[in-house]
Specification:
Elements lengths: L2 H33 L3 H18 L4 E4 L11 E4 L6 H8 L3 E6 L8 H6 L4 E3 L4 H15 L3 E4 L17 H9 L3 E7 L1 H4 L13 E5 L13 H13 L6
Helix pairs in contact: 1-2, 2-3, 5-6
Length: 240
């Protein structure tokens, strides 16, 4: 193991402690505002929490293509999944989203509770019937918000994008929203699934692509849609 790895391991321990403390405070604040039905402040708390996590780690999220987000417009936001910090990365620049993702995230202490107050809908079982039911719940809960998903379904263990699943296609056909592709860079290096410590040397970039009109996709078959969307997200990969 390299000297840098030892440094990262030692520094990660107190940093994780601070991150969990901040998350605990944020959960309490978000729950309070949720109880009084003040969604604006719930989302504000979530945004501050997400940005503060990266500040504590000494990381800056470099956002590329923010102008591609039209204010007041709803999207299906699709983003590659490479790290535990992917959701905070998206919430840091786009707090007004409803999430659809894996159930295990709700089991993470404190973090899972924070997800619940932002209308997170979890995938509990595989199967088309169950997926359609969960998508229906997501549409109902999302209201006026953009819906964010990881089309891969799970984090990569290699740094390469996994195969895209069809859940986002069912959703697209149900809500008739444009696709907003987003590419996360550096998050895999920061904290991959394969080890517990944080790599403090990681450089983080978020690439927000031009949206893909639903009209350009709706008449294509599933494999074509997946190929188009995955190619767009892969085009934003930055190699150091």
């Amino acid at each position: 193991m390299s000297a840098r790895s030892y440094f990262n391991i030692i520094l990660s321990i107190p940093v994780y402690g601070i991150l969990y403390f901040l998350t605990a405070i944020s959960v309490l604040a978000a729950l309070f505002f949720a109880l009084i039905n003040n969604e604006f402040f719930v989302r504000k708390v979530v945004s501050i929490w997400a940005n503060t996590l990266f500040f504590v780690m000494g990381k800056k999220l470099n956002i590329i293509g923010a102008s591609h987000i039209q204010k007041g417009k709803r999207y299906i936001l699709l983003v590659n999944h490479c790290s535990l910090f992917d959701i905070p990365a998206v919430l840091a620049f786009y707090p007004g989203v409803s999430w659809f993702g894996r159930e295990y995230l709700l089991k993470i202490p404190l973090f899972g509770r924070l997800l619940k107050v932002t209308d997170y809908v979890s995938m509990k079982e595989a199967g088309i019937t169950n997926t359609k039911k969960m998508l229906s719940n997501l549409v109902e809960n999302s209201g006026k918000h953009t819906i964010a998903m990881f089309p891969e379904g799970t984090r990569t263990t290699t740094g390469q994008m996994n195969r895209f699943k069809k859940g986002f296609i069912y959703l697209m056909r149900a809500v008739n929203l444009d696709i907003l592709p987003v590419t996360l860079n550096g998050l895999y290096q920061l904290k991959p699934k394969t080890h517990f410590y944080i790599d403090f040397s990681a450089k983080l970039h978020v690439v927000i692509h031009e949206s893909i009109p639903v009209e350009d996709l709706i008449d294509k078959d599933d494999n074509e849609i997946i190929a188009i969307v995955k190619a767009r997200i892969e085009a934003g990969v930055i190699t150091n």
